[in-house]
Amino acid sequence: xxxxxxxAHFSAAHxxxxxxxxxxxxHGHNWKVEVYAQGEELxxxxxxxxxxxxxxxxxxxxxxxxxxDLNTLEELKGVSPxxxxxxxxxxxELKKKIPKLTKVCVWETERARATYxxx
Length: 119
Hints:
- This protein has a single domain (about 1-115), classed as 2-Layer Sandwich (Tetrahydropterin Synthase, Chain A), CATH 3.30.479.
- Helix content is about 25%, strand content about 35%.
- It is built from 2 helices and 4 strands, in the order ββααββ.
- A 4-stranded antiparallel sheet has the order 1-2-3-4, covered by helices on one side.
- The longest helix is centred in the middle third of the chain and has 15 residues, at about 50-65.
């Protein structure tokens, strides 16, 4: 089995819904996003997936989030924009383009992350 990972970043503001604490107030983060793909077979170039393609598709999704108030985005309407829900959003959108995608990790800080994958 082979696995590849790429990382990217985005900055955005948000506030958590139905939350009692500091994070119910508008604040921002510089998120790090890791996406993983797996597979058993390589292509004729000896690659599972071209890193350039994986990064390009990820960046297209992050462009939706970058430098926005996540609570105002149509794509996240009615959802608390927690790191968990952001990871799920990125996974769901990226999976449409990258079938070998296995999981997405969203780092809110250097010590706190949320991961989403499907069985």
